[in-house]
From TrEMBL:
GO terms for cellular component: extracellular region. InterPro entries: ANG-1/2/4 (IPR057439), FIB_ANG-like (IPR037579), Fibrinogen-like_C (IPR036056), Fibrinogen_a/b/g_C_1 (IPR014716), Fibrinogen_a/b/g_C_dom (IPR002181), Fibrinogen_CS (IPR020837). Residues 1-18 form the signal peptide. Residues 115-195 form a coiled coil. It comes from Carlito syrichta (Philippine tarsier). GO terms for biological process: angiogenesis; blood coagulation; positive regulation of multicellular organismal process. It is found in: Secreted. This is Angiopoietin-2 isoform X3. Keywords: Angiogenesis, Coiled coil, Disulfide bond, Glycoprotein, Secreted, Signal. Residues 222-442 form the Fibrinogen C-terminal domain. It holds the Pfam family ANG-1. PROSITE patterns: FIBRINOGEN_C_1, FIBRINOGEN_C_2.
Length: 443
C-alpha cells in the first residue's frame, strides 16, 4: 500500500499560493521532508513514499485498508495514479515558478546593474557639476578682482580729470589775463603807430608840396590836368621812377595816394599792400580796410573800395611777392584778379596761377568774402580775423593771411597768427616782407 507524503516550499512570497493549494490536497497524508537549495531560494518538499513497499498479501495491507477505508486494489491504484498526476502537475507548475523566479532574479540583477550604472553616471555628473561650480567660483572671484581694479582705475582717472580741470581753469584764467595785457599793449601800440603815421603823413605832405612846387617850375601848366587811374597810366605817361603818385577813382574826382612800382617786371604795378617792418598795425576795422590805411612809402593797405572799382573796369593781374627771414624770395602770379563790390563783401576772384611760391593757391578757391575784426564773413564759427588778426579773405581761417601779426626774426616760427603763405613756408612760419601789386593784363 502507498502512503502520500506532503511537501512544503519556501521562497519569499512567490510560492505561497502553490503551497496552500498543494497542502489542501495533501493534508491527510503522511509527511517526509526533502530540502533543495536553488540560488537565493530554499525549497522543502514533502514527497509521497511507499511504506516499506509490502505486498498486498501482507497483513499490513489489510491493516492499512482497515485503517484508511475499505478499498480494493484497483481503487488504490487509481487513487495513487491520481495522486501521481497531481504530483506531476504540481511539479511542472513548480518548475515554471522556478523559471519565472529565475527570470525575475535576472531582471532584478539587471535592474541593480542598471541602477549602479545610473548611480555612477549621477556621481560623474555630480563631480562635473562640482568642477564647474569650482570653476564658476574662480571666474566670479576673477571678475570681482577685475571690477575692483577697474573701480580703482576709474577713481584714479576721475582724480586725474579733476586735476586737469583745475589746471585748465587756471590756464584759462592766465590766458584771459594775458589777453587783457595783449589788448592793452595793442591799444598802446596802435596809439604809437597812429602818432608815427600822422608824423609820416605830415612829412609826406611836406615832400609832396615841395615836389608839386618843383613840378610847377619844371613842367608846363597843362600837365597839372593829367589824371591817372592806375600806375600803368603813370608809366605810360613817361614816369619811370618808382614812388608815391596820386590816383583818381574811376568815374570820380576822388583821389588816393598809392605807391607805383615802375621798375619791377616792366613797371606799371600799383601796390595795394605792403609789409616790411611791422610799423603799421593791420588789425583794423572794416571801414579802415575799405578806405585804406598806413603810409604808401612804407607799410600800407590801399583800400578795398578803390581796388574793387578799379579791377571791375578792365581785366587785371595780381602778383604777390614774398620774402622770408633767410633771404629767399618767391612770388605767385594770378592772370585774372578782381574784387566784388562792398555789397558782396569785397569777395576775391582769382584765375590762372603761376610762380614759385607754391603750385597750389594759398588763397582759398573759389573766392571768399573779406573779413575784419568787426565784420566776420568767413566760413568758421571761430571768427578768424579776431583769432588770426588782420583783415583777409579767410575761408575756414584758410592757408594764408598776409595781414597777420608781424613777428621779428627768431620769433617768427610756430606762429599761427603771423604773416603766412602756407604753400611756400607752411602754416607756422611768419614772413619778413610781402607786397601785393596789380597791373592791367593788357599792359
Amino acid at each position: 500500500m502507498w502512503r502520500i507524503v506532503f511537501f512544503t516550499l519556501s521562497c519569499d512570497l512567490v510560492l505561497a499560493t502553490a503551497y496552500n493549494n498543494f497542502r489542501k490536497s495533501m493534508d491527510s497524508i503522511g509527511k517526509r521532508q526533502y530540502q533543495v537549495q536553488h540560488g537565493s531560494c530554499s525549497y522543502t518538499f514533502l514527497l509521497p513514499e511507499m511504506d516499506n513497499c509490502r505486498s498486498s498479501s501482507s497483513p499490513y495491507v489489510s491493516n492499512a485498508v482497515q485503517r484508511d477505508a475499505p478499498l480494493d486494489y484497483d481503487d488504490s491504484v487509481q487513487r495513487l495514479q491520481a495522486l501521481e498526476n497531481i504530483m506531476e502537475n504540481n511539479t511542472q507548475w513548480l518548475m515554471k515558478v522556478l523559471n519565472k523566479t529565475t527570470r525575475l532574479e535576472l531582471q532584478l540583477l539587471e535592474h541593480s546593474l542598471s541602477t549602479n550604472k545610473l548611480e555612477k553616471q549621477i556621481l560623474d555628473q555630480t563631480s562635473e557639476i562640482n568642477k564647474l561650480q569650482d570653476k564658476n567660483s574662480f571666474l566670479e572671484k576673477k571678475v570681482l578682482d577685475m571690477e575692483d581694479k577697474h573701480t580703482v582705475q576709474l577713481l584714479s582717472i576721475k582724480e586725474e580729470k579733476d586735476q586737469l580741470q583745475v589746471l585748465v581753469s587756471k590756464q584759462h584764467s592766465i590766458i584771459e589775463e594775458l589777453e587783457k595785457q595783449l589788448v592793452t599793449a595793442t591799444v598802446n601800440n596802435s596809439v604809437l603807430q597812429k602818432q608815427q603815421n600822422d608824423l609820416m603823413e605830415t612829412v609826406h605832405n611836406l615832400l609832396t608840396m615841395m615836389s608839386t612846387n618843383s613840378a610847377k617850375n619844371s613842367f608846363p601848366a597843362k600837365e597839372e590836368q593829367i589824371i591817372f587811374r592806375d600806375c600803368a597810366e603813370v608809366f605810360k605817361a613817361g614816369h619811370t621812377t618808382s614812388g608815391i603818385y596820386t590816383l583818381t577813382f574811376p568815374n570820380s574826382t576822388e583821389e588816393i595816394k598809392a605807391y607805383c612800382d615802375l621798375e619791377t617786371g616792366g613797371g606799371g604795378w600799383t601796390i595795394i599792400q605792403r609789409r616790411e617792418d611791422g610799423s603799421v598795425d593791420f588789425q583794423r576795422t572794416w571801414k579802415e580796410y575799405k578806405v585804406g590805411f598806413g603810409n604808401p612809402s612804407g607799410e600800407y593797405w590801399l583800400g578795398n573800395e578803390f581796388v574793387a572799382q578799379l579791377t571791375n573796369q578792365q581785366r587785371y593781374m595780381l602778383k604777390i611777392h614774398l620774402k622770408d627771414w633767410e633771404g629767399n624770395e618767391a612770388y605767385s602770379l594770378y592772370e585774372h584778379f578782381y574784387l566784388s563790390s562792398e555789397e558782396l563783401n569785397y569777395r576775391i576772384h582769382l584765375k590762372g596761377l603761376t610762380g614759385t611760391a607754391g603750385k597750389i593757391s594759398s588763397i582759398s578757391q573759389p573766392g571768399n568774402d573779406f573779413s575784419t575784426k568787426d565784420a566776420d564773413n568767413d566760413k568758421c564759427i571761430c571768427k578768424c580775423s579776431q583769432m588770426l588778426t588782420g583783415g583777409w579773405w579767410f575761408d575756414a581761417c584758410g592757408p594764408s593771411n598776409l595781414n597777420g601779426m608781424y613777428y621779428p626774426q627768431r620769433q617768427n616760427t610756430n606762429k599761427f597768427n603771423g604773416i603766412k603763405w602756407y604753400y611756400w613756408k607752411g602754416s607756422g612760419y611768419s614772413l619778413k616782407a610781402t607786397t601785393m601789386m596789380i597791373r592791367p593784363a593788357s599792359f
